[in-house]
Structure formats: C-alpha cells, structure tokens
Design a protein that fits this description.
15 helices; 7 strands; single chain; elongated; alpha/beta; disordered N terminus
C-alpha cells in the first residue's frame, strides 16, 4: 500500500484536532483577561501547571504546535533561537504539543524523540485532552500566547502571519519591560531593532507580491526610527515603480536628510534621473556606485541602462557582477517593452524586488 501523501495526512490531523470540540469566537479569552494556566505534561510525564512556570517571572510565552505542521516547526525553532534572551529577561517559554488528544507513554516517547531530532532547548510539554488548546480557543497551529506577570493575556497570535510574528516579539519585549538598544556595527549607524525588523518584513512582503502590506510595513519602520533612511528609500522605490516621480523625489530628499551619502538614496535617485530622461546623469551616478560592487541593484540598474543604450558587452559585464554579488541574474528580469527605456524601467523594478529581502 502506498504511503498517504503528507498534505493529506496533515489535513486529516488538523480535522481530527479541531473535531475534538466545537469552537467559536466566544471561546477565545480577550486580551487583558485572565489567561488559562492549566497543567500540561512535561517530557518526563509529570504534570506541570503553567501557573508555576509563570511564578516569579515577568511573562510567559505559550506556543501551540504540532509535529505534522511545518509552520509549527519553524515557529518552534524561532522561539528556540530566542529562548536564552527571553529567559535572561525573565520571560518563560512553554512549547505545548497538541499532536494528539490522548497522550499515552508511546506518544510521549514519540514527542521526546521528535524534540531530540529537532535539537531544540525550549521547554516542551504535551496537552492532555487538548484542554489548554481549547481553553485558549485555538483554531490553528502554530498559535502563540503572551501572558504578563499578573497572569493576564497580553497578546495572541493565531496562525502564521509574517507581520504579526514581528508584533509577537514586540509584545514579548513589552511584558519583559525590555527597551531594545539600537543595533550597531563598525560601519553602519545605529538602527532601532523594531525598525529593522519591519523593513525586512516589508521587503519580504514585496518579494512575495504583497505591495500594500509592504508599504504599511515600511511606514511603520519609518516611525519606529526617524533616523533610519531605508524605509523612506523603499517607499520612494514604490513611488518610482508607479512612475510617481514627485513623491519619490520628496521621499528621497527626506531619506538623504536622515543619512548623507546613503547608497540606497543614491541608487534610487539615479533611477529617478533615468525615468526623468536624464540617462547620462543616471549612468554616471550608477557607475560611481558600482565601483565597490556593494549594491547588486545599483550594478544591475547600470546594466539595464547600458543595455537600453545598445552597449550589450558592458551590460553583460554589469549583469555578471550583479549576479556575483546577489546570486540572482539580472538578465532573467528583462522583458520586451515598446521602448528600451521602458524595458529598463520594468526590469529595475522586478530585480530590486527580488534581491531586496536579503539586501543583496
């Protein structure tokens, strides 16, 4: 007999999980209400009330996960990567497995084996009878609760949302009373972590084709750190994508005021010049940026302009350099257009959106 396909197995598991008890929106405890802190079973088989896990702590994070859910595993591993930092700031973590309604010794062994294979160190528990699962009104995994020191529900993330996952870590910081210091390196100015997270989220959303959520993320990033130029550069890029040159110019001026000489500002100003018909000026600016091969998009932009001007040899050289920086070949984003200038503009948009999530 053929093995049941993974997608079908996962679907059946989800149906069985939710069929254990009918749920409604009213089953979900509201934010600010007492959080259910029932007993769960640890990997040794002992009952552990979550109230005891919270005692003396600033907060408690409860992740509902299942081994058949790839998204659950990703969220478990993400929390595991942050568990040392959370513990140091007085926040406890409980990763509660909801794989089975009945948890016998054989099921507990399977859970222990899975945790060992995943190499995670976050405390893992099993939810017998899915009592905690239903007490929180969970309807999907992964789902994550944040409980404050007083046992009140401070935040709940239903499902797997890129945007809300960033809000989750903001909520954890809030219950712990953490004010994150801006990141700092030897070459870049300090950036507020919340701003950096949101700008990276926006770039990911944009690469996935979600333009309006990306715009919202960039706007939030700009508010989170009023010295960080990247969100304004991204918003200016969106304006250029829409051929709104006046808006783009204003945003780039604001970004330049935040950080003089920023590469992103110079790159998008060059694109603005090209769209405004100032091709020679745009090429000169991009050639200056391309000297250090620090920005794949700038080098690709130069290649597209060279190609539009009929200089195929130099264009290919620029494309090769951009590919070496980012691993993404700009030639794959060239598309037929009525004019070479229009083709260059469209290719610039497509390539920038592809490489932006990794800032390649």
């Amino acid at each position: 007999m053929n093995a049941m396909p993974r997608a079908i197995r996962c679907g059946l598991a989800a149906v069985l999980l939710l069929a254990a008890r009918p749920l409604s929106a009213g089953d979900r405890p509201p934010i600010g209400a007492p959080a259910p802190l029932l007993a769960v079973r640890d990997l040794a088989g002992a009952d552990r009330p979550l109230k005891a896990q919270l005692a003396g702590r600033r907060g408690l994070v409860v992740l509902f996960w299942a081994g058949w859910s790839e998204r659950s595993i990703e969220e478990l591993q993400r929390l595991d990567a942050a568990v040392s930092d959370m513990t140091a700031h007085g926040v406890a973590v409980a990763a509660v497995s909801v794989d089975r309604y009945d948890v016998d010794d054989a099921e507990m062994k399977q859970l222990r084996d899975r945790v060992e294979r995943l190499h995670v160190h976050v405390p893992v528990f099993a939810d017998r009878g899915l009592e905690l699962f239903h007490a929180y009104g969970v309807v999907t995994v992964p789902s994550t609760a944040v409980v404050d020191a007083n046992g009140m529900l401070a935040f709940f993330l239903f499902g797997y949302s890129h945007e809300q996952r960033e809000q989750l870590f903001d909520a954890i910081d809030a219950v712990a009373g953490i004010v994150r210091r801006p990141t700092q390196s030897s070459t870049l100015p300090k950036v507020a972590p919340a701003a950096l997270r949101r700008v990276q989220l926006g770039r990911l959303q944009l690469a996935q084709g979600h333009e309006e959520p990306a715009r919202s993320s960039f706007e939030e990033a700009s508010k989170a750190d009023e010295t960080f130029p990247d969100p304004l550069v991204e918003l200016a890029s969106l304006a250029l994508d829409a051929n709104d040159l006046a808006t783009a110019r204003g945003l780039l001026d604001r970004a330049a005021a935040r950080r003089d000489g920023d590469v992103g500002v110079q790159r998008e100003r060059a694109r603005l010049a090209a769209l405004n018909g100032q091709r020679a000026e745009a090429r000169a600016a991009l050639e200056r940026l391309a000297v250090n091969d620090a920005d794949a998009a700038a080098v690709a932009y130069l290649g597209y302009l060279l190609q539009a001007d009929g200089d195929r040899g130099q264009a290919d050289a620029a494309f090769d350099r951009a590919k070496a920086i980012s691993g993404v070949d700009p030639r794959a984003y060239a598309a037929p257009e009525p004019s070479p200038a229009a083709a260059a503009a469209r290719a610039m948009t497509a390539y920038r959106r592809e490489v932006a999530p990794g800032r390649r």
